[in-house]
Amino acid sequence: MPLPVDNLTPGSSQEAINTAVSESIRQCMSEPIPEGTDVTDAGKQKWCAGKAYGIARQNTGKTLGRRE
Q1: Residue 49 contacts residue 25 (beta carbons within 8 Å)
Q2: Structural domain boundaries in the chain
Q3: Lower CB count within 10 Å: N or C terminus of the chain?
Q4: How far apart are CA 32 and CA 58, in angstroms?
Q5: For 7-20, what is each residue's pLDDT tens digit?
Q6: Angle in degrees, CA 61, 66, 68, rounded to 5
Q7: What are the tens digits of pLDDT across the range 27-53?
Q8: CA-to-CA distance for 61 and 56, rounded, in angstroms?
């Protein structure tokens, strides 16, 4: 199922990005772990967050989740 972060664009506001990432993590956590991944129940939250932030970075072209 598509995640909210799939709809982000380079013009998305920071608020829209934050909302999409949060909703995507929540959605990912409610779905079963995909077959063929090496994710355990204990590592699922970290995997979901990485997936959501990765897609958000790719679709927006912005550096997210890092403080520099």
Answers
A1: yes
A2: 4-60
A3: C
A4: 24
A5: 999 999 999 999 99
A6: 105
A7: 999 999 888 888 888 899 999 999 999
A8: 8
**pTM: predicted TM-score of the whole model, two decimal places:** 0.86
Q: Which tokens in the block code for residue 1?
A: 């199922």
Task: Please enumerate in sequence order all residues whose Cβ is within 8 A of that of 39, keeping only pairs 6 or more positions apart, or say none.
Answer: 33, 47
Torsion 21-26-27-29 (CA) sign: positive
Length of the chain: 68
HSE-up of residue 23 (Cα within 13 Å, Cβ side): 15
Q: Residue 27 corresponds to which tokens in the numbers above?
A: 């959605």
d(C-alpha 33, C-alpha 46), whole Å: 12
